[in-house]
Write a structure and sequence with these properties.
Distance between the termini: 18 Å
CATH class: Alpha Beta
Number of strands: 8
Number of helices: 7
Largest sheet: 6 strands, mixed
CATH architecture: 3-Layer(aba) Sandwich
Order of helices and strands: HEEHHEEEHEHEEHH
Bound molecules: iron/sulfur cluster
Shape: globular
Structural class: alpha/beta
CATH superfamily: Uracil-DNA glycosylase-like domain
Strand order of the largest sheet: 1-5-2-6-8-7
Length: 219
Amino acid sequence: MNLQNKTHGPVDPPLDCPACPRLVELREELKATHPDWHNAPVISFTSEKPRLLVIGLAPGMKGANCTGRPFTGDYAGDLLYKTMLDYGFAEGTYLARPDDGLQLRDAMITNAVRCLPPQNKPTGAEIKTCRPYLLSTLAANPSIRAVLALGRIAHETFLTALELKRSAFPFAHCAEHNLPDHGTTLFDSYHCSRYNTNTGRLTEDMFRSVFDKIRNKIP
Ligand code: SF4
């Protein structure tokens, strides 16, 4: 990915990152009520030299915020990891716990916002404050050829990180945006949340259609 002109810092925030007061307050509250949970920024989960980067919105309370691994422990992870296993982007067995031995293959999973937001809704300021970590992650992984944005916020955060106009690349489920200047292709999907699957907004077949396109691009 062509980000040579970008300055970048660490790819992951410190576990006591103080940058978003509202999110810090929430995780401190949860540390008191659930001291056995992760309750900290969630670092990316990756293989070596990933070609696919999956970007989610933010950790779920009883998912990544609890277990410390992206999408691990909640419904969204059940569908995401099942599909990644089916398409060869992971190997092993997903048991919804970070010590299940699951390995990613050719892939990385991260979140646009690394800390749990109240009601799963980060503010614009929080998205902006956490964006440098996404930018650094992109710059540090030039092997990335395909990006899967799970939901509109992940899509827009990625475009903004690359300084691309949102209007030129509108979000739509199963959309494929070629970004030749950056050596990558952006794929969109509705977020694989329980809400979206329960309401029928996203079916397993719709999700697999996106991965069909990704595998076609990076066989
Ligand atoms: S969301 Fe990102 S920038 Fe904000 S406190 Fe968490 S790690 Fe830091």
